[in-house]
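For reproducibility, we list the full input for the magnesium ion complex.
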Amino acid sequence: MDHILVIDDSRTQAEYLKSILKSDYEVTTCQTGLEGLALAKTGRYSLILLDIIMPDMDGFTLLRTLQESFPTRYIPVILISGLSDVQHEEKGLTLGAVDYITKPFSPITIRARVNTHIKLYHFQMQFMKQAMVDQLTGIANRRRYEDESIMKWREAGRLGLPFTVCMLDIDKFKIYNDTFGHPAGDKVISAVAKAASSYLQRATDFLARYGGEEFVSIVIGLDAKSAFEFFQLIRRAVEQLQIPHNPEFSPYVTISLGGVTVVPQAGDSYDAYLKIADNMLYDAKKLGRNRVVWSDGGREQWLEK
Ligand SMILES: [Mg+2]
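The corresponding predicted structure, in tokenized form, follows.
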């Protein structure tokens, strides 16, 4: 059931709105803008009904604040105003409110408009989700990776946890495509994504298609040695799929992996470590492919086999 937040300094008014909506929605009410802001930030709400005239923080100020930050920017806000402030409608809509309802209102109007905006909200969320997914494999795409990598990097730094980034690449993929054709190549990319994601199941694990036959994974909480061993499992899992390759080059489809594990320190740059992971991948290719090469961010390097 969708959650709706009603922010109105008049408790009577807030309770009246709640009584209109409570058969279809879970409704929370509060009486101040500050309280409303704190509640909105929990990310629990699909819609906000906001009174304009309130002491301390008025509806316009709150609306502006909601619009300034993610994810509250995406919560639809319907402004509720008295007849005396009907001239504020333009201002409210300009600030980003999706709709404007003037008191006195009929319960049917409230229900109808709320239903419409909740529906639109779900379409928008669905659309945004799809824009973050790689269509071929169903895993995260490059765009989502760009957001996620920075968030996870900061999170690991804040918590003082080891952060791992690993680049994965399908070996001799161009030859595979030239031999078996692009549709077969697409199937291989999907199979590798599936095998890798079956190992990356924890809430903090992340896997994205980086581009072409290249993937990137982020893991938090494993030390360098454990991460090195963990990604060997993924390498083996792909090898064990036993997808026939062009026998002149390789019996089966395999992947090479390069990674780095560090505890992010203040002033460290994520991009510098991504570059190290990329160098490790390069070493894995150079050493003969189908292997994992790892760095601890300093002098230590681990090579598989
Ligand atoms: Mg009021």
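The first strand starts at residue 3 and ends at 7. The mean pLDDT is 94. Both points were considered when choosing residues for closer inspection.
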